[in-house]
Design a protein that fits this description.
The complex is a heterotrimer of chains A (about 130), B (about 475) and C (about 500). Chain A is an alpha+beta fold and about 130 residues long. Chain A contains three helices and nine strands. Chain A has one domain: Beta Barrel (OB fold (Dihydrolipoamide Acetyltransferase, E2P)). Chain B folds into two domains: about 120 residues, Alpha-Beta Complex (Aspartate Aminotransferase, domain 1); about 260 residues, Type I PLP-dependent aspartate aminotransferase-like (Major domain) (Aspartate Aminotransferase, domain 2). Chain B has a seven-stranded mixed beta sheet with strand order 2-8-7-6-5-3-4, sandwiched between helices. In chain B, strands 11-12-15-14 form a four-stranded antiparallel beta sheet, with helices on one face. Chain C has about 500 residues and is α/β, with parallel strands linked by helices. In chain C, the strands form three sheets. In chain C, strands 1-7-6-5-4-2-3 form a seven-stranded mixed beta sheet, sandwiched between helices. Chain C has a three-stranded antiparallel beta sheet with strand order 10-12-11, covered by helices on one side. In chain C, strands 8-9 form a two-stranded antiparallel ribbon. The longest helix of chain C has 23 residues. Classes of the chains: A alpha+beta (about 130), B alpha/beta (about 475), C alpha/beta (about 500). Chains in contact: A-B, A-C, B-C. At the B-C interface, α1, α2, α3, α4 and α5 of B face α2, α3, α4, α5 and α6 of C.
């Protein structure tokens, strides 16, 4: 299990990475592992404006469909359209080719409220039965 | 007890293993004051006694007493080849359930896949689901799907010549979801034929998700939909067409006409009338809309050795996974009815189905001609149809206007063993002198002539003598 | 070891054996004067109707072979939890096929349909008596539609009282997915109520959720863990006190025929699954039938038409709409063919027979629970009702799905898996009353054998099933490469 430490996490298992004035968002390695083989990713339209905590899409495996939530408020600037044809990128490379959306944050300070890799790792350990 | 596996001796052994003295001890979680109520029910019958009871009940139905009926109005008497009941009655199909374990259910899943394939070809559509309860619920779910598929649009427009009960069902489904319904020009007045294409298109607003038309419509008229889909799409709405599957064998497929969602009542495809069900809700869509579809879908895949097989797929749309965010709460489909339709389509083949459709068309037109010759009677002329079609195109059903109340005609004809059709005032109270008559391939020329004779006699007698009693519904 | 094998390979698709010109059914030539077709409206060559062209024997062999690829109640023990896969008496089919019923048009005149109406009237009455409700509507076509009916009735009740603040329906987390999906369709919001460690509703959590924004509760009792909600009276009271109404999901009614009546304990409205409790065939997924029973306060809102008596010239029985009906849920009068089968089933049982059904269903489940708990631990170690939950993932590296697939090799359909969601890796086992002791013991032996294999040779489970016509099917590629119809 990888807990990449240059990104921030939230409890619903998305990661967020500051990239100049944008924030890139994906799901964590832990999340993709729990979901199993991802078969479909539903993403928002570019230009949609959403608040932190809003659902922006769905990541689906055969047996589960998981909503994904905005880690920060802002406008959707880009979506990873490649996932349409290659949803398995979410499994194979959750932090790179499996990214979901890029946000132009309306309040960049929201990013700092998210968990560090270490905090998130501890959090996921608490979720095990 | 006939259907219980164990004997008293078995039960004793089982209770001993559980350390219980009596079966009653299994029910201590149930509030004592409500435990073991006395039920007042008829005494148990043996199979032989039940059959006697059933025989006497069945004899009180027209179908059990040899009446010749021309009632249609959404469901019809069609020819059903013997192999449909023979094969669909197999216990391996009838007593299996939803194919949750695909490896032990290929009979069911492959049948669904073949059903989807054949109905898709029949409708000219990309994707067909494993079925809905009936035509009416398919229409209601199509409306919901259209709203879900068109962002920011929350109204639906229904043609007034959609089956009146389908409009009622659609209202029941849509009202709690806050989806508004506009019904355009329901044919309530005597002789009315419903909306024109212009009035339908005019009803589409910026917030309209879809337009739903039935073709042939409730009054039997075939509507010329050429070019209509483009007009609907130009207004940003989806076109939903509800069809008679037999008619689609003869007429241009709804897919070729540009429909986005197609629904149908599948009862004509080898399913008995059974006083209202179970029937088969056909549901099809363009492939771009597949993830918004309700209902089960069978898809092709391979097993671990590479052999082809079938599984239920796109399950994340459905209630058992998506729960409150599912596309519908539908769980069961009409599996056994879809099986009947699949066997029926296989047995009929493209030629047989087309021949059946042509016979419907020929027989219905012959009946209409004979009936129109009865003094005072006429066959309802068609109004302007969408596009530049001639009036009067109908498939297997039409409206007969009578010079005396329809109820009287039906009552008197029934005395002669013929039920000529449905009195239209059942759905449109002002239409007291009109009968909706259905004629399919299942009726012989002699049957049609008997119909004409019975109506002629009834019209003549009713004109001579006043009605014997109030309208019969 | 494995002894079961399906006896024929799976046939190709009918499209793949199609040959141009081959026919099964022939129809007579038209013998009426010809009417020209509207050529501009008929199918063009580009829109040619393409269906398989096969002989009648082809069709018969195809579907007979396909049938052999199915497990079914008629051929196998089918302990699919929450689905009540009991024996389906064949007299039901004979009754439903009677031409006096099968050939009857639903819009026949009242005077011509007194036999069908009498069956419906009697069935309404008998279902009401069995469940303790004052009225029953036979309209809904399936359980899920019965659920929608019930919630729409609750909604209509509140609206008629001018009470529009109520927007929430409480649903225990053990509920079937149809419950929350129904809530959404009815325009309400689901509030999930957690279960306690005994597998039943957490009463404190429920009470805390009750308020003047609650329209009602949907409760399945016995619940999906096979347990009777022993606090049911307190649960019902809590909901009623806050002004909500209680919907009973009748999915598990097979456990309580003649044992307890939901209407007696305060449930306001409930659906029946005729294809579960009353032995109508499951049909590979349907048709079902989901009649709804209601207490006096909701009876006026039932969907219609319903059958009432009231001597007109046309006969004793007639169709009427309840006063404040929510309307119609489907065309015509319900899935009549299913109603007829259920009528036959109840008539052949009587009151004592119905109680015997539930007693034996519950005894069978408890006996099987005790027989199997060594192989796979039972989650809630207490007397169950008609079904129980085992945990399928107790052996290293072996999943519940592996266990399910391996059971197929022993000739048993698998239990329901991974449901209810409150138990991780659940195997939900419902034997029903129609199975005998030998079958239960054989199934328990098979579960023990699978448990032994899970420890000695887990790959046997990973690679299962081995004896079915196809090996384990790839559900992932089915979604990633969608093929939903025959590809030419």
């Amino acid at each position: 299990m990888t807990f990449r430490d240059d990104v921030k996490y939230q409890e619903s298992h998305e990661w967020a990475l500051k990239d100049d004035d944008l924030v890139i968002v994906g799901v964590s390695d832990y999340a993709q592992d729990s979901l199993g083989d991802v078969v479909y990713v539903e993403l928002p339209d570019v230009g949609d404006v959403k608040k932190k905590g809003d659902s922006f899409g769905v990541v689906e495996s055969v047996k589960a469909a998981s909503d994904v939530y905005m880690p920060v408020s802002g406008e959707i600037i880009e979506i990873n359209a490649d996932l349409d044809d290659n949803p398995s990128n979410v499994n194979d490379s959750p932090f790179d080719s499996g990214w979901l959306i890029k946000i132009k944050p309306s309040d960049p300070s929201e990013l700092s409220a998210l968990m560090s890799a270490q905090e998130y790792k501890t959090y996921t350990e608490g979720l095990e039965d | 007890m006939a259907y219980i596996g164990n004997t008293d001796a078995d039960r004793r052994i089982m209770l001993d293993r559980l350390g219980l003295s009596s079966v009653d001890d299994l029910f201590t979680d149930i509030p004592a004051e409500h435990r073991f109520p006395e039920l007042e029910l008829p005494p148990a019958q043996t199979e032989l006694e039940l059959l006697r009871d059933i025989e006497s009940l069945a004899a009180q139905n027209a179908a059990g007493s040899g009446m010749l009926s021309f009632v249609g109005a959404g469901v019809y008497r069609h020819f059903i080849p013997a192999i449909v009941s023979y094969l669909s009655g197999r216990g391996e199909f009838a007593t299996a359930y939803t194919p949750y374990q695909a490896e032990a259910s290929q009979g069911t899943v492959q049948t669904i896949f073949e059903y989807q394939s054949m109905v898709a070809d029949l409708l000219g559509m990309d994707v067909v689901n494993a079925s809905h309860y009936d035509g009416s619920t398919a229409v209601a779910e199509a409306a919901i799907m259209a709203v879900r598929s068109t962002r920011g649009r929350s109204r639906v427009v229904l043609s007034g010549t959609l089956h009146p009960e389908y409009i009622q069902v659609t209202r029941t489904y849509l009202k709690p979801q806050g989806i508004a319904i506009d019904v355009v020009d329901p044919p309530e007045a005597a002789g009315a034929t419903g909306p024109t294409s212009e009035s339908l298109l005019a009803a589409i607003g910026d917030d309209t998700a879809c337009l739903i038309v039935q073709n042939p419509d409730f009054l039997g008229r075939y509507v010329d939909l050429r070019g209509f889909a483009d007009e609907v799409h130009a207004r940003g709405a989806l076109l939903v067409v509800h069809v008679d599957p037999i008619a689609t064998a003869l007429f241009t497929s709804p897919g070729a006409l540009g429909a986005d969602i197609v629904t149908g009542e599948g009862q004509p495809l080898g399913i008995p009338l059974s006083y209202g069900g179970p029937y088969l809700g056909i549901f099809a869509a363009r492939k771009e809309l597949v993830r918004k579809m309700p209902g089960r879908l069978a898809g092709q895949t391979t097993d671990t050795t590479g052999a082809r097989g079938f599984v239920l797929t796109l399950n994340t749309r459905e209630q058992h996974i998506r729960r409150d965010k599912a596309t519908s709460n539908i769980c069961t489909n009409q599996g056994l009815m879809a099986l009947r339709a699949t066997i029926y389509l296989a047995a009929m083949g493209p030629k047989g189905l087309t021949e059946a459709a042509r016979l419907c068309y020929q027989n219905a037109h012959h009946a209409a001609r004979l009936l129109a010759q009865i003094p005072g009677c006429s066959v309802l002329p068609g109004a302007t149809s969408p596009g530049a079609a001639p009036a009067d195109v109908f498939f297997k059903e039409f409206v007969l206007r009578t010079p005396v109340p329809a109820a009287d005609v039906i009552e008197r004809a029934a005395d002669a063993g013929v039920i000529p059709g449905l009195a239209l005032d059942r759905y449109y109270p002002k239409r007291t002198h009109e009968i909706l008559i259905a004629v399919t391939e299942a009726y012989s020329r002699a049957d049609i002539e008997r119909l004409a004779d019975a109506v002629r006699d009834a019209v003549t007698k009713s004109a001579d003598a006043p009605a014997r009693k109030e309208a019969v519904r | 070891m494995s002894s079961f094998r399906f006896d024929s390979p799976i046939p190709p698709l009918l499209y793949e054996i199609s040959r141009t010109g081959r026919r099964a059914v022939l129809l007579p030539e038209s013998d009426v004067p010809e009417t020209p077709l509207p050529d501009h409206l008929v199918r063009s060559d580009a829109d040619e109707l393409r269906l398989p062209e096969v002989s009648e024997q082809d069709v018969v062999r195809h579907f007979t072979k396909l049938s052999h690829a199915n497990m079914s109640i008629d051929t196998n023990f089918y302990p699919l939890g929450s689905c009540t896969m009991k024996y389906n008496p064949k007299i039901n089919e004979a009754v439903a096929a009677h031409p006096g019923f099968a050939g009857q048009h639903p819009l026949g005149r009242v005077s011509d349909t007194q036999g069908a109406l009498a069956v419906m009237y009697r069935l309404q009455h008998m279902l009401a008596e069995i469940s303790g409700f004052s009225a029953v509507s036979l309209q809904p076509a399936a359980g899920a539609q019965g659920e929608l009916t019930g919630i729409l009735m609750i909604r209509a009740y509140h609206e008629s009282n001018g009470d529009t603040r109520r927007t929430k329906i409480l649903v225990p987390d053990s509920a079937h997915g149809t419950n929350p999906a129904t809530v959404t369709m009815a325009g309400y919001e689901t509030v999930e109520i957690p279960s306690n460690s005994r597998g039943t509703v957490d009463l404190d959590a429920l009470r805390a959720a009750c308020g003047d924004d609650v329209a009602g509760l949907m409760i399945t009792n016995p619940n999906t863990a096979g347990l009777f909600e022993e606090d049911i009276v307190a649960i019902v009271d809590a909901v009623h006190e806050c002004g909500g109404l209680v919907y009973g999901d009748g999915a598990n009614f097979n456990a309580i025929l003649g044992i307890v009546r939901p209407g007696d304990i305060g449930v306001d409205v409930m659906h029946f699954n005729l294809h579960k409790t009353f032995s109508t065939p499951h049909g590979g997924g349907g048709p079902g039938a989901g009649p709804v029973g209601a207490a006096p306060i909701l009876a006026p809102y039932l969907p219609g038409p319903v059958v009432t008596r009231g001597g007109t010239d046309d006969g004793d029985y007639r169709l009427t709409m309840p006063d404040r009906s929510i309307g119609r849920l489907k065309s015509f009068h319900g899935n009549f063919g299913m109603l007829l089968r259920a009528y036959a089933y109840i008539m052949m049982h009587g009151a004592d027979g119905l109680r015997a059904i539930s007693e034996n269903a519950v005894l069978n489940a408890n006996y099987l629970r005790v027989l199997t708990e060594r192989a796979f631990p039972v989650k809630f170690k207490r007397t169950c009702m008609h079904e129980f939950i085992s945990v399928g993932s107790v052996y290293d590296g072996v999943s519940t799905m592996d266990v399910a697939k391996r059971l197929l090799d022993y000739g048993f359909h698998a239990p329901t898996v991974y449901f209810p969601l409150i138990v991780k890796d659940a195997l939900m086992i419902e034997p029903t009353e129609s199975e005998n002791r030998e079958t239960l013991e054989a199934f328990a032996d098979a579960l023990q054998a699978v448990a032994d294999e899970a420890q000695s040779n887990p790959d046997l489970l990973h690679d299962a099933p081995h004896t079915t016509p196809l090996r384990r099917l790839d559900e992932v590629s089915a979604v990633r490469n969608l093929v939903l119809r025959y590809q030419r």
